[in-house]
Every structure is written in C-alpha cells, then in structure tokens.
Design brief:
Length: 189
C-alpha cells in the first residue's frame, strides 16, 4: 500500500495544471483559512454547501479524507476538492457497485468541490476534478460523487466532462433534512 500511496503522490503533484492563471496543488494546513473564505463566497452566491457547517475547516477535513487540493488563481486560493474513502451505505459507491459488480470499497468519493465565483470560467473546477481523479486511480480506486439534484451548474460540469450517471436517490443528512442527489462515476481513461 505504501507503494500505491507514493505513486499517488507523484501523480497528484504531476497534475499541477496551470494556464490562464490557474494552478492546482495539494492542500496544506495553512490553506484552510483561505479555503473557508472562498467557501463563504460560494455559499453566499450559490448556497453551497446547502447547510453551512458549524466548523467549516473541519467540514473540509472530514474523517476518511485521502487527500485534498486547492486551485489558485493569480496566487490566491480560489477552489477546493477532497477525495474521501467511501463509507458503508453511501449512495454513489453502492450504485457503482450494483452497476459494475465491484465492491463499494474500491471507490473513492470526490467531495467538497467548489470554485469561488470570481475564479469561474477558467477551468479551475475541471482541473481540481482531474487531480482528484488521477489520485484515486493511482490508488487503484474508482472515483464517484454525488450532487444535489438542484445544483444545475455542478450537474452540467460533470456531464460536460463525460462523467457517467449512476442513478439518483435520497440522502438523509444529520440535520434531519432529506435531499435528492444524482450520482456519477468518473469516465474511463
């Protein structure tokens, strides 16, 4: 497993996309305050996350986090994505498993993806996704994700990038709220 982790780190560092003033790199602990600031901008503009967390920095660093990346635009943190180990009963890994026959533990869940409004239109979201997908694959895992049915911009991004729709279902959040999500798997290489 150490060999896989080392290979994944090489892949992630090599996916440091630049161009149009956008760079993607592994998130550092020192980035969290800037990540929270950008998340606040996204929440004010788009309502993501749908329920503002009591501790946003902890929300960006959940249990099971394999790695996280930030997008920088003109030297400032302007986006974020995390890659998480799939957990029991999660919808996207379960749908992928039913479709492919693979075990749900062979998936990694992409989450906490956002790009600050001022940085949009520069492919920061696509670059963040590419880094997370490359890392998951280097670990031998299939990237999957879920998105709120009401998040039309995110749905359009995943479809434009060729992600495969796995199905939809309801999720019950810790707050008691039930939401409909659409689940996707990353396109094959």
């Amino acid at each position: 497993m150490a060999d896989l982790e080392e290979r994944a780190n090489v892949v992630a560092s090599g996916s440091r996309g630049t161009g149009a003033g956008v760079g993607v790199r592994r998130r550092r602990a020192a980035d969290l305050a800037d990540c929270v600031r950008a998340l606040g901008d996204v929440h004010s503009t788009d309502g993501y996350p749908a329920e503002w967390p009591d501790r946003p920095a902890a929300w960006l660093t959940p249990d099971g986090l394999l790695a996280a990346w930030v997008a920088e635009v003109d030297g400032r943190v302007a986006g974020h994505v995390g890659l998480l180990r799939s957990g029991p009963g999660e919808l996207a890994p379960g749908l992928w498993s039913r479709r492919t026959g693979g075990r749900p533990e062979l998936t990694a869940v992409i989450g906490r993806l956002y790009v600050a409004p001022a940085a949009r239109g520069r492919e920061a979201g696509a670059r963040l996704l590419a880094g997370a997908v490359a890392h998951a694959r280097a670990l031998g895992l299939q990237p999957v994700l879920d998105v709120l049915a009401t998040d039309t911009a995110a749905l359009a991004l995943y479809r434009r990038l060729g992600w495969t729709a796995l199905g939809s279902g309801e999720q019950r959040w810790a707050s008691g709220r039930t939401v409909v999500v659409h689940c996707f798997a990353a396109p094959r290489d």
